[in-house]
Design brief:
By secondary structure, this protein is an alpha/beta fold. It has a single domain, classed as Rossmann fold, CATH 3.40.50. The chain contains six helices and 13 strands. An eight-stranded mixed beta sheet has the order 2-1-3-4-13-12-11-8. Strands 5-6-10 form a three-stranded mixed beta sheet, with no helix packed on it. Helix 1 links the parallel strand 1 and strand 2. The longest helix is centred in the C-terminal third of the chain and has 12 residues.
């Protein structure tokens, strides 16, 4: 069973609908600890501020069960956008510690006045898959982004794909059973559907 974790800050319905289009049947949206305890895979979507995400997770009481599922049982987990940022140790956006599942930090895009780039980075962009992994296919893939912060990995092996917005930045991570994408596969049409298809097969 794939459980899309509903902690109040994610595009849970959009993610669920993508699995429905793929005819993946054993998927649910839940914040129930008993259901999450039975999960074989976890999705952690997210939209919004880092501290708000951690506050919601803490208030839900889900962090201990999520830590157990991910760190002890080693079930595959996919963090999306804010969900990926919450996998890190901390963020420049707030003061709350993150989940710390990936040794990384979340830092702010600094606008380049010479290039006249506007923050947030919003819209379609190509990605460059750097390392072989089970989530992302090699090739000319492009995805939909909306973010003002990005993840900086302390171990370069955990950065599996990059994109470019005034500078190269990590847009996907992987450490063992833990995956994250800064882009929104649920908004990325066929490219996004392939990501969810690959995740369902893990």
């Amino acid at each position: 069973m794939i459980v899309i974790v509903d902690y109040g800050l994610g595009n849970v319905a959009s993610v669920f609908n993508m699995f429905k289009k793929l005819n993946v049947k054993d998927v649910c949206i839940s914040c129930d600890k008993d259901i999450i305890a039975k999960a074989q895979k976890l999705l952690l979507p997210g939209v919004g501020a880092f501290d708000a995400g951690m506050i919601n997770l803490e208030a839900s009481g889900l962090i201990p069960i999520l830590n157990n599922k991910v760190l002890q049982e080693k079930v595959p987990v996919l963090g999306i956008c804010l969900g990926m940022q919450l996998l890190t140790n901390r963020s420049e956006e707030g003061i709350k510690p993150g989940l710390g599942w990936i040794d990384a930090e979340t830092i702010k895009f600094i606008p380049d006045s010479a290039m006249k780039l506007k923050i947030p980075h919003m819209g379609w962009n190509y990605i460059d898959v750097k390392r072989e992994n089970k989530l992302l296919d090699k090739g000319r893939n492009r995805f939909y982004f909306v973010h003002s912060y990005f993840v900086k990995c302390f171990n370069s092996e955990h950065s599996i794909a990059t994109s470019n917005f005034g500078r190269e930045f990590t847009c996907a991570v992987n450490k063992e059973n833990i995956y994250g994408t800064q882009f929104h596969p649920e908004k990325s049409l066929n490219f996004g559907m392939k990501v969810f298809e690959n995740f369902a097969k893990l």
